[in-house]
Design a protein that fits this description.
Order of helices and strands of chain A: EHEHEHEHHEHEHEEEEHEEHEHEHH
CATH topology of the largest domain in chain B: Rossmann fold
CATH class of the largest domain in chain B: Alpha Beta
Oligomer: heterotetramer
Low-confidence stretches of chain A: none
Largest sheet of chain B: 6 strands, parallel
Distance between the termini of chain B: 76 Å
Number of strands of chain A: 14
Radius of gyration of chain B: 22 Å
Structural class of chain A: alpha/beta
Distance between the termini of chain A: 61 Å
CATH topology of the largest domain in chain A: Rossmann fold
Strand content of chain B: 5-15%
Shape of chain B: globular
CATH superfamily of the largest domain in chain B: Thiamin diphosphate (ThDP)-binding fold, Pyr/PP domains
Number of helices of chain B: 12
Structural class of chain B: alpha/beta
Low-confidence stretches of chain B: none
Bound molecules: thiamine diphosphate, magnesium ion
Radius of gyration of chain A: 20 Å
Largest interface: B-C, 54 and 53 residues
Number of domains of chain A: 2
């Protein structure tokens, strides 16, 4: 009997909730832990209702202590569980860095495969929701540098569902960053069919020939709109790549696109210096140098702490910045 | 359960101090240094704090303020602290200490600015004030406070460092590392825990198995005490004693003040999702303002007229602060670049120039 | 110092358990489950551990091993733990638990490999062993252990998680966060502190003001006990009781075992820079092997012949392990890439290819 | 009366010790704290003898707790002290990341200048000394991404002396990473004159016209030797830039050099992906794209945890790798 899968008009929050529910149902080793994720369903409601279905042994409200949330996840993961830990905001992830750098990502290598660490750390990230200080971080670059870690960032409900399922099933530690700015602002038709998406692929969201725009997470919204504007207003054919997996980085897809277009602009919300764009640029010029007709452009956050919310717009890269940088990049090396 | 091969090598006890109960009755005699005038003052501070609180929530509801954490029901702790600290003591607060900060001279307009998403709220109108701004990453302020207390110790300065945190914060490593340091270095530190029983949706029974938060100080061999966090007299007395001890460099104190969060965690929270109505209702009966007013009234220190007058006065003062807040001129683009380093480095200078244009585009004046 | 407004609301005491004193005398009767045969076994394990230790230092001195932390004088703690743990209990050790690991079936060759700079030392020859490898970042292992204990709790598994750390480690946040979790979740955890009085050059009196490390458990409301870390009988008894309690899911225990680090911190350290000779000399008099041998000898369970024979036997066994260690075939370049992820991602595959050539260039076989 | 300054034949350890001594003597607000730095003089002896001169109130052996070492330094720094904290090895710095990211680097900005945070965190870093796991980290890129932080790395005794003095005098938080592999292997003539070196400049260590080699820290040794070999064996004229201040990054000096040579190779010990080279490459191609005759090359560590010491050589970039990459870069785009 073929089970018909339910279709949902889903926000990213819905999609994540469905993915968690699916993963919890399909594998009893999946457990969730974090602050306020049980009775309260998470401050963004991503885990809403799960405690009622799966019980307090699998949906664990932890004490307010991120270090041990990460550390105990490492311990649990080595015993065959698949912990999915929520860090309430990425701004509170820093005290977990030691467990990520020194243990989660090294246990397999340290024991030559005897112990493994299949854990997922979920954290809402990025700005744009008018939250207090420390609630708007985008420091994925710091984590992209850690050998042994996967860093995954969905840009839409459908991708959130598939990528989270794959992250939970993956036997490597995964940092799963959720662009909270689009938690509820975008809806998509979602089939709850339990199908994962690959963790090692960029996704081409739009094809084009003149310029490649590369982005991920919430910035995909502005990037797509900038692409549409460039096409509409100036007749420029823009390809848009959603990086999705920051690490490992699928440079093949990016390189191929840039070889075709000869021009690229990278858009990210993270601060510029030593930000994620650097690596992507390094690879592009390493592998497609002689195809490049202009320097790869960057549209990024500034090298400043995120302004408090009244002025966060000054920080957030916007459509106009992307359009202008695209135009500059198109003019260079004519 | 002790077997014969075991000998007792250390023992500890935790005390709780109480004066004014929920019915406004003194269960222990009023300490001589707590004058009636001081308690009238205390009450007035709480009226002001609650007026501020209500206004902040109202501003948030009308889109004029961001997420705001109400201190409803917890005003006594903050007020007592504000009243007992001296100017050169340093406060390292968390985000629910409005009353302490107001009493220490940070005007409400600064607090509104901060919660309104403007960094200048932490500039503080009083430039001599070296208090820390509110701390958002839970419990990290305790480590900063330990450092400030260390500076006082190095300089033999007769001041105290005061830091505050919530009950949830006592689960984090920073809390213990700071207490441990305060113990071994005998730091002039007073750490106050606002045990309002909730950390967002998590009741304290899920944070820790301890009977009291005060006993966590035993892990650092520092003095500790539990006090009724709704009892103004107990709070004034305990804080004063601990502050004096700190200023004399006679050691640190952890004070657990047990109270109850009558409001939502913040304006972004809905406590009805996780909290029983009846818990809230019974907590309302023990809150600090009712009991102090009862006592003051019974002792002819307060009456309905004074109450009306005080409320009106506070509302007026707060209204002026709101106006000053709303009249705050906007920041300029440079403000976001000029304080990242002492001097703006070359790479940031370029970005600043770019940001100026963007700023003009976004908000042309 | 209690004033009249204070009432006692909680009290705690710390006990210390003792049987065999430094002179080899029983100060309390031998518990019925500690048989003479067990104590002979205990002694033999310590001979083996010390033989291993001496050999490791010798190998380091001749350039055949890297930096190595001797457990000299602290063998009783590790040995008792190894003897009382069951196979399916999980050990989350720190770097000074050689004897525990040897008893649990990790051959000395693996330990030599690890300290010789070869990752395969933590692969463990016994593939069923899910013990953690040695933990270098101080105190982080306590959090891992809490997670493993949580897994046991979720599955209702009748096993205990055992973790160890030094006295210095009890200053770190991880230590407290883990104990707090163990308390509130009633985890099947036994945490053992090897209080050898030093953290490299820092004496415990500079780590903390506490009278006992055991009292740190009060901050988590879990059971705790201090035991003479050089008393094999006390150690066996306390560990056994705590392990059973954990396996029954009746709660966690913190055990402070007080001993003394007779050697340098590691082979890279020179304790004479910071430690008085006379402290060391008096500590030598209380170390565990002398006292157990005295007792065994007095009870006709041991004699010089057996001693010589055992030492010889251990030396031979260790020599074989050394040989196996020295005969370990080198790793290949792929080994450094194949375990970073479950499958080597494309970007790493390229680097692996490059590394193979580099490896051949550096060490052509 | 002119005070004659003493000249020393100094290792980097000596130089650091002299700089600390000078700073402690010139400003009573300078205090040192860390594990084993007092009586023991630090595990590498950088603070040897200082406790005897300046006393335990200024040279503080702390409990073993990195989080509070960083956190208390923040507190002290706001009160007018100038704490210089030692983290025993960079591998143990991760639990301090929260205090660095969320507080040290933000207090000035958060209070619009009311509070400042002049602290230095010193940490020996890098591999090559046959140490146990976690004793060989090179994760400067993670820190280079943090707005408000300075990241400084000396490559020689003379530079260690001058840069550390400037770091201590600087009113910004500075992460000062000491390449322990060259702690004792290089000696230089050092004048203890209290003169600082700029914290916002790269240093040209060798001039040349055909190729720019860019590096920092211990890798400067291999880089200089590779440069000499390239010149000697192949007659290639190589310029060597010592970046020294990873953040803020003096790209002007780098760009100028690359504009001249048209070719560059970046050498660092850190793992490759999202490593420091990315940002340098991004800037080079942004500002000197049309001067570049070949893609900028990278010689870096692999994206793996540092192998245990028996095999650390496989990880460490060596002279031959630099020479080969230089040759490749020179051949490209001929
Ligand atoms: C490190 C960190 N983790 C999580 C949060 C999100 N958060 C903000 S307040 C809060 C609960 C704090 O509870 P408590 O310490 O009891 O203080 P209260 O708010 O009740 O006064 C949480 C989890 C944070 N600010 N910092
Ligand atoms: C987080 C961390 N900081 C610093 C170190 C360096 N270090 C190694 S052992 C040690 C002292 C540990 O003392 P203790 O916990 O008492 O254990 P012992 O070595 O005495 O058995 C230090 C500081 C480390 N390994 N990890
Ligand atoms: Mg609370
Ligand atoms: Mg020790």
């Amino acid at each position: 009997m073929i089970k018909a899968h339910q279709t949902h008009e889903a926000t990213m929050v819905d999609a994540l909730n469905l993915a968690l529910k699916h993963a919890l149902a399909e594998d009893e080793n999946v457990v969730l832990l974090g602050e306020d994720i049980g009775t309260n369903g998470g401050v963004f409601r991503v885990t809403e209702g799960l405690k009622d279905i799966f019980g307090v042994r699998r949906i664990m409200d932890t004490p307010l202590a991120e270090t041990i949330i990460a550390g105990m996840s490492v311990g649990m993961a080595t015993q065959g569980l698949r912990p999915v830990a929520e860090i309430q905001f990425m701004g509170f992830i820093y005290s977990t860095v030691e467990h990520i750098v020194s243990h989660a990502t090294r246990l397999r290598n340290r024991t030559r495969g005897r112990l493994t660490c299949p854990l997922v750390i979920r954290a809402p990230f990025g700005g744009g929701i008018h939250a207090p200080e420390h609630h708007s971080e985008s420091t994925e670059a710091m984590f992209g540098h850690i050998p042994g870690l996967r860093v995954v960032i969905p840009s839409s409900p459908v991708r959130a569902y598939g990528l989270l399922l794959s992250a939970i099933r993956c036997n490597d530690p995964v940092l799963f960053l959720e662009p909270k700015r689009v938690y509820r602002s975008v809806k998509q038709n979602l089939v709850d069919n339990g199908e994962g998406l690959p963790l090692d692929s960029c996704f081409i969201l739009r094809e084009g020939n003149d310029l490649t725009l590369i982005s991920w997470g919430a910035m995909i919204q502005e990037t797509l709109q900038a692409a549409a504007a460039l096409e509409k207003q100036y007749g420029i054919s823009v390809e848009v790549v959603d990086v999705a997996s920051i690490k490992p980085l699928d440079s093949a897809t990016i390189i191929e696109s840039v070889k075709k277009t000869g021009r690229a602009v990278i858009v990210h919300e993270a601060a510029k210096t030593y930000g994620p764009a650097g690596e992507i640029i390094a690879r592009i010029q390493e592998e497609a140098f002689f195809h490049l007709r202009a320097p790869v452009g960057r549209v990024t956050g500034f090298d400043i702490p995120m302004p408090y919310f009244k002025n966060e717009a000054i920080y957030m890269p916007d459509i106009q910045q992307i359009v202008e940088q695209a135009q500059t990049t198109l003019q260079q090396g004519q | 359960m002790k077997n014969n091969a075991q000998t007792e090598i250390a023992q500890f006890k935790i005390l709780r101090e109480e004066y004014l109960n929920a019915k406004g009755e003194l269960v222990n005699p009023l300490p001589s240094d707590i004058t009636p005038a001081l308690l009238v003052q205390f009450y007035k501070h709480m009226v002001y704090a609650r007026t501020f609180d209500q206004k902040a929530i109202a501003l948030q509801r009308t889109g004029k303020l961001g997420t705001y954490p109400s201190a409803l029901g917890q005003e006594a702790i903050n007020t007592a602290l504000g009243m007992m600290m001296k100017e050169k003591d340093v406060l390292v607060p968390y985000y629910r200490d409005h009353s302490t900060r107001l009493i220490r001279g940070t005007p409400a307009r600064d607090l509104f600015r901060y919660w309104g998403g403007d960094e200048r709220g932490s500039l503080f109108s009083n430039p001599l004030n070296v208090d820390f701004p509110d701390c958002v990453p839970i419990a990290t302020q305790l480590s900063h406070a330990a450092g400030i207390a260390t500076a006082m110790k190095i300089r033999n300065a007769p001041f105290a460092t005061v830091t505050t945190c919530g009950d949830g914060a006592t689960s984090r490593g920073d809390f213990y590392e700071a207490l441990n340091l305060a113990g071994v270095w005998q730091l002039p530190l007073v750490a106050v825990v606002n045990n309002n029983r909730w950390a967002i949706s998590v009741p304290f029974s899920k944070q820790s198995k301890v009977q009291t938060i005060a006993q966590k100080a035993i892990a650092a061999e520092i003095d500790a005490l539990q006090v009724d966090g709704n009892d103004p007299i107990g709070l004034l007395t305990c804080f004063n004693r601990a502050l004096k001890k700190a200023r004399d460099h006679k050691g640190a104190t952890l004070i657990e003040a047990v109270t109850y969060r009558l409001g939502d965690h913040t304006t972004a929270d809905d406590a009805r999702r996780y909290r029983k109505d009846q818990d809230l209702e019974s907590a309302k009966e023990i809150e600090p303002m009712i009991r102090l007013r009862l006592w003051l009234t019974q002792n002819n220190l307060w009456n309905d007229d004074l109450e009306q007058q005080e409320i009106m006065d506070c509302k007026n003062r707060i209204q002026q602060e709101v106006q000053a807040y709303l009249d705050t001129p906007p920041q300029v683009a440079d403000d976001f670049f000029n304080y990242v380093y002492e001097e703006c480095p070359a790479e940031l200078e370029n970005q600043k120039t770019f940001a100026r244009e963007k700023f003009n585009r976004l908000s042309p004046h």
